[in-house]
Each structure stands twice: as structure tokens, then as C-alpha cells.
Amino acid sequence: MSSAYQQLSAIFQRLSRFSHLSAIAGCDMQTTMPPGGSRARGEALAEMSVLQHEILTDKRVGDLIQEAEQQSLNDVDRANLLEIRRAYQQATLLPASLVEAKSIAGSHCEHAWRQQRPANDWKGFSANLKEVVRLSREEAQLRADANGSSRYDALLDVFEPGMTSAKLDSTFGELKTWLPDLLQQVVEKQSQQEIIHPKGPFPVNAQRELGLDIMKVLGFDFNHGRLDVSAHPFCGGVPEDVRITTRYNENEFLSAMMGVIHETGHARYEQNLPQQWRGQPVALARSTAIHESQSLFMEMQLGRSREFLQRMLPQVKIQMGDQPALQSDNFVRLTQQVKPGYIRVDADELSYPAHVVLRYEIERALIEGEIEVDDIPALWDEKMQQSLGIDTRGNYRDGCMQDIHWTDGAFGYFPTYTLGAMYAAQLFQAVKKAIPQLSELIREGDLQPVFNWLQQNIWQHGSRFSTEQLLLNATGEALNPHYFRQHLEQRYLHN
Amino acid sequence: MSSAYQQLSAIFQRLSRFSHLSAIAGCDMQTTMPPGGSRARGEALAEMSVLQHEILTDKRVGDLIQEAEQQSLNDVDRANLLEIRRAYQQATLLPASLVEAKSIAGSHCEHAWRQQRPANDWKGFSANLKEVVRLSREEAQLRADANGSSRYDALLDVFEPGMTSAKLDSTFGELKTWLPDLLQQVVEKQSQQEIIHPKGPFPVNAQRELGLDIMKVLGFDFNHGRLDVSAHPFCGGVPEDVRITTRYNENEFLSAMMGVIHETGHARYEQNLPQQWRGQPVALARSTAIHESQSLFMEMQLGRSREFLQRMLPQVKIQMGDQPALQSDNFVRLTQQVKPGYIRVDADELSYPAHVVLRYEIERALIEGEIEVDDIPALWDEKMQQSLGIDTRGNYRDGCMQDIHWTDGAFGYFPTYTLGAMYAAQLFQAVKKAIPQLSELIREGDLQPVFNWLQQNIWQHGSRFSTEQLLLNATGEALNPHYFRQHLEQRYLHN
């Protein structure tokens, strides 16, 4: 008879195989599926979610967890059991009726939003959003009761276990003391520089080839992954078969190129998660923000650095043809342009945190019940004015209606973008310390020592350690936003 | 409380949704997946099979079937219940240990065969095949005991419910009385004709565009399906999202073109299965041979007809460029060439049945225990000599080792190819009778009346009727191989 822990492992192995099928069917849906397949696909995926929820919330799983906690386990199994308990708690915490109601309200709100956003219809949208917020508060309350935390902290914990609004208030608060000033200085500085913009068209095939070239340099394993096209870029699939996507615009190649670098960062993390624990929760990526730190490490720390851009420039010229805009200094300036604007997903590295902090402050207050949905637009206008000097009054479409996250109630997600950026800066600083000749290596495209460091310090650990412990082990300290500031000042002010 | 029948419907609805995920993951595996994903994919698909088997063989399903059989049901529900019982019986009939042993022996034999075939290694192959045959006989015996039939008939019933070796012996026996003569006459006749062969290269993109053109003419619904590329062409996916594939050879475009027509025949059947019963067994395709009849209706009856080829010729010239080989008569001759050869999958319409009958005779005797694996090569040589005048002695690779079917124990499948060809000829004759101006309509590319007939007589019925009843309703008589002979003589001798 196998032990309680072994039985749990078998159950999670099975769940992981089912997730494999959902993940691949999900990628197919975004990249390949003809439109008419969408309803049947949605039903099939939903049926699978129901099954997985049934398996996960079976009372026997709870009993096995209690039993397994009495077993003597090694460190990895113990960490795995923690993750198993977490998954079980998350799944059993919410009554099925609430999960279903939230899923329906979210689908409805998101579906309507696809029309309401272009129509700038805040009135129509806010009516649906109120229902989503009502149900999200209900969810948050149940989670908070179980965690002994505040409502928003309980939602935050879903995406970033261990993170709290107290930590975010302090981290983001500090950031707010210097970011607007820095932004202004950089915008001023850059206004003195001339920039030549590349002239297209840039054929899709050439852009794809460039993407593949860069993925090779970044160590993407094509035996266990692919590059495809989708309307919204993502990294999906399973560690053995990681699918990343981009979208192409023939007038402009930098977006697709940087997008591919970003998704390759996610992909390398997935591809290098610990093989020996595959199928178990402990083999999964640590958290949303750690995942984002890997994509931003590749895109922001490495990908937009002068050294890396110079390394890639010959390939860029081969695929796009040489032209004045591809002169080395100009090419670097192009990828490091700072331009505060309305839209988060188009934001540069320096404006991005302003978009995130604003959303964090609003969603936290919303979930805690300090504000209501009707208060969002005015707050949005005020904060955009303060942080980026941009007037969004009456412009809901490019303001508080621009993102998909709130439509289906993903409150607590936004902070992970900027946490990821901060982790990435801190990790890159640690890599610099560990590899003194780093700049030369990057210029030569010899990134293996960097990958080895990431493998040693992040990838191979999966969810074995808490985020805090992982970062501490890797860099010698807890989250320190100083490195992010230093990175931004260094790149945008002192270069 | 829902009735037993309703509960069964819900269970099969769920199974159907799970099959959706497996089907899409299966298509992805053949068309898209990087090689390194194969092991994890195989495990995920196997886990799903195990789950489906568990759900299907649950004792409660048996009880519900017995209960539902006492209910008063309408005709369709009654037919559905028959299919449900059939699925339940098929699944519960075999002990899990046998299913697993056969699956392992089959995988092993198939895997080794991929090397053994090119190496012409009969000795190595036959050792593995013996184990597959041993387990297949065991399976056949269990099925035979349950059906009260012979062993081979019980396997036949898996692919073609209602078909027996007695019927096949008579049908195929009759065919053997005239086929070799007809073949010889046609080969002689064609040897008098000059044929100009098209000169390539034919770019893959042009071939793909031509395929898409033809699929449009054949009414393929691109909102619910796609054309992709795979090593072995197939029609897969689900009725709401049918995936067909082909493979391209730049030296030659006719194979891919005819292959696309063939798979489009399968696809139209799938896409037009009854929507109102989706998710239930009664909404599935009737049988393997009826499925093949739809592909061969499109490929052989329609696709290789002079009228259809003339209709498509302008598109062929647009995509491939004009050249002497594309002169109308020559183009028809090209697609109707008869050349007896070693390989079944490369065979023309006239030689194909000879390949099938030979395999049928050997596999029937093998399963019934009248011959052993060691007897296969001599029998193969003898029958190839008799039917096609071809010497295969010592050439196992292009002889009895050429097909994948026996490697994993799919005994009983081969006859469905020629049954499908016979059904197709009989159906086409009925269409001719129903639509007197058929030739003109085909020449004009107005195939809607043909599709309407197929929809009315075949597609919309799913598995509502037995194969025999379906054919009787559609054509006024049971399987009559006379139409197949008539078709072949008409096309190849009297044209």
C-alpha cells in the first residue's frame, strides 16, 4: 500500500496530465482554431475544469493531506506537500455557486467590454463591472477569513503568495517619491536627441526569422517549444512543449522583436523547471511575479541593453536590410525611448510602473470597500495627471477601460508586473556581481554563464522555496527596489 | 430527478467533451508539436483514455442502461441507447490487463517496425507480430463469446457493425472473379495511350492554394475546420472544428490535390453530422466504411471524373502555370492511370481492392487460427502474383511489412477500404438517378444538389440507422457490388 503522500503525488500527477491537454487546447484556441470551433472548445475546457475541481476537492484529498503531514518527508516532498495543501485550500475555499457566478459575470463583462471599450461606453461597462466587483469582494472575504488577512491581501496571495499590501504600499510608495521626477528628467534629456525611425515595410517572414534568431541566442529549446502567431502574445503550453506567440505589424518590427524576447524569458523558465519533480506542484513556476521577472530579465535587463542590441544588430540588418535607423547608437535610442502615454501595454520601461501603481491603488481600495466602481474614473484621471501628466477625462477607452484584467475579476494581478521588474533588476545586479566580465560576454553573445546562473538560482527550484527565500538565496537580500531605481537611472539618465 | 436515460446522456456528453480535448491534442501532435513534447503528450493522452475507460465502465453505467431500456423513448433516443450499450459492452468486455498488454505489445511492435521495415527485417518483425496476434486472438475470442460470432467477425464488428466474413467472402469472392481480368484489359488499353507528365517544381504555397480552392468547391466549411500539413494525411478534430491534412512534394502536385479531395470527403461528413444530438453517440459517424465511402465519393466518384477535373482545370492552371500536361484529355488520363504496384497506399482505384482482399484473406485466417505468422510471406507472394502479377518474394519491406495496421493489432480494419469504395459507387449511382442533369452540374461546379442529397441521405443521420438500413434508405437496396464493377468498367474500359 502506498503512503498518503504517494497517493497525493499520483493524484496531482494525474491532474497535471489533464492540465497538459487543457494547456495545448488553449494554445490551439489562440493560434489555430477556426472561429466556429470556439463554443465547443469552451465547453470542453470548462468540463475539464469541473473535473479537475472535483478531483482536487474530493474529501479524500483533504484526509490524505492531513495524513501525509504526519509522515516524515524530505525537504522537496515537504515543499510539495505545502503546495498541494495550498492548491487544495484554494479549491475548497469557495463554494461552487460563487465560482460559477463569478465565471458567468466575468465572461459577460469581458464579452460586453469588447464592444463597450471601442464605444467608450463607461455607463454600460460599469454596470457589469459592479457585479464582478461584488462577487470579487465576496471571494476576497472568504479568502481573507481563511488567511486571517485583509480582503485585498487575500487576492494578492493567489498570484503572489506571501506578498501583502503593506509591503506594496511601502515599495510602491517609495517608488512614487522619485519616479515622476526621473520620468520628467529623462523625457527632457531624450527631447535633445534626434532619432531616426526605421522605414518599412518589414515582411512578416523576415520578422519571424529575426525572432527565431534571437530565440536561439537566448537559448530557447526548439525541441521543446515553438514560436507561433496570436492576437495577444503569450507564453503557454507545458514545460515539455512551450508555446510562445507574437503578432506582426509590417510597418514596425521592434514590437514583435522585443515581444519575442519577453516571451522567451517566460519560456526558458518553463522549459527549465525541475524535470525530476515533473507533474508535482513543486515543479511549477514559483509565482506570477517571479515568472514576470524572467521575461523582464530577458527583455528589459538584457534585451534593451546596449551590449545585447549591438550583438543582435548584424542579424537585424540581415533580416530587415540596412538603413540609417539601424546605425548602432540610433538603434539603442530607439529601443530605449521613453514616452509617457495612455496605454499600459504600450508603455516603456520607465512609465510602466506608474500605470501599475495607479491600478494597484484603485483596485486595493475597491476590494477593501473604500471606493466604489463609480469613483474609478475620477481617481484614474487624477492619478494619471499626477504620475504621467496625462489628461484622461472622458476618455474611458484609453483610461480605466483599457485593460482586460478587471473584466473577469483578476484583482491582485497588476502589482506582479512591477514586482517582476524589481525582481529582474535585483537578479541582474546579482548576475553582474557573479560574472565580472558580463558586458563583454553579452556583446559576444555568450550568454551561457547567465543562463547557468538563472538555472542555478531560479529555474531549477520550481516552487521549492517561498518567493522571499528564493530571492534571498539568489541575491543575498529580500526584495530591494533600490536596484530597480539604480537600473533606470543608469540606463536612462547616466548613459 | 432526471431519468436513467437523461443521466446516461449527461455522462456521454461529458465523455464527448473529453474526447474533444484528446482529438485536438492529437491533431496538434501530428501537425504542430515539437518532437521533444511527444512523451509528455503520450502520457497525457493515455491518462485521458484511462479516465474515459473508468467513466464508461462504471457499474452505474450498466445499471442505468438496463433501467433506460425500460423507459419509453423516441426513435432517436432508442438508437442512441443502442450505441451507448454498444460502447459500454465494447469497453467492459476486455479485462484491463488484456487492453494494457495489447497496447504495450502494439506500441512495441509498431515502434520496432519503423526500423525493421526499411531494414527488410522480417525475422525481427515477425517475432513481435506473433505476440500482437496472440493477444488479438485472445481479444477476438472474448468478443466472439459475447457476440456469438466467429473470432474474426467479432473484430470486424468493431469497425463495421453488422458486417460478417460470410458477406465479405461472397462480396470479395465475386470481385475476384472479374477484377484481375479487368485490370489486365485496362493496363493493356492504357499502354496504347501517350501521357505527358507535368514538369515541376510546384511550390508548396501554390499546391496549398489549389487545395483550398478545391475545398471551397467541395463545400468545406472553413469556419469549422482547417487544412494543415502532416507526415501522414488524416481527417481529425471534432465536428465543430475538423482538421484535415496533406503532405506536399514539390515534384508532383496530383497526390496532394487528390489527397485533399479525399480528406474533404471525410470532413464534410464530420462537419454535417447532426447538430441537435451533438455529444451523444448517435450523432457520431455511422462506421469506418461509411466514413470511407464519403471520402471515396469525393475522391473517386466525383474527384477523378472527367467533369469535375474539367471544372477544376482553370484553377489548376492558375496555381501551377499552364503546360502541355494540363491539356484537358491528358489531365484526365493522368488522374485515371492504372499501374499495379507493390504499395497499397500508392495504388490506383482499380488495383486497390486487390491489395485489400489479399490482406482480408490473410488476416481472417490468421485470427481464426488457420494460419500462423510464419505463413504470411508465402501467402502474400502467392496472392500478389495471382491478383496483380507482382513478385514480392524476399521483399518484405514492400510486401507484408508495408502497413502499420497489423503492428498494433487493428485486425478487421482493411476490408472497410473496399467496402467504402463499393458504398461510394452505389451512392453515386443513386445520386445520378436522383439528379438527371448531374454531369452538367459537376462541369459547372454546382455541387449543391449533390451535397443536399448526401446531407439528406447520409450525413444528417449520424448513427441513427444501422449501416444496412442507411444504405437501403439511401439507395433502395442493400450493398450491391455491381455498381462498383459498373463504375470501374465505365471509367476505365468504355470511356
Strand-helix topology:
The structure is a homodimer of 495-residue chains.
Chain A: H1 4-31, H2 38-57, H3 59-68, H4 75-93, H5 96-116, H6 122-147, H7 151-159, H8 165-191, H9 204-217, E1 225-229, E2 235-238, E3 241-246, H10 254-271, H11 288-303, H12 306-320, H13 328-335, H14 352-368, H15 376-388, H16 415-434, H17 438-444, H18 448-457, H19 467-475, H20 482-492
Parallel strand pairs in A: 1-3
Antiparallel strand pairs in A: 2-3
Helix pairs in contact in A: 1-2, 1-3, 3-4, 5-6, 6-7, 8-14, 9-10, 9-12, 10-11, 11-16, 12-13, 12-17, 14-15, 16-20
Protein described:
The structure is a homodimer of 495-residue chains. With 495 residues, the first copy, chain A, is mainly α. Chain A has 2 domains: 1-93; 106-195 and 265-291 and 300-310 and 336-495, Neurolysin, domain 3 (Orthogonal Bundle). Chain A is 64% helix and 3% strand. Chain A has 20 helices and 3 strands. Chain A has helices at 4-31, 38-57, 59-68, 75-93, 96-116, 122-147, 151-159, 165-191, 204-217, 254-271, 288-303, 306-320, 328-335, 352-368, 376-388, 415-434, 438-444, 448-457, 467-475, 482-492; strands spanning 225-229, 235-238, 241-246. In chain A, strands 1-3-2 form a 3-stranded mixed sheet, with helices on both faces. In chain A, a hairpin with a 2-residue loop joins strand 2 and strand 3 (241-246). The model of chain A has no long low-confidence stretch (mean pLDDT 96). Chains A and B meet through helix 1 and helix 2 of A and helix 1 and helix 2 of B.
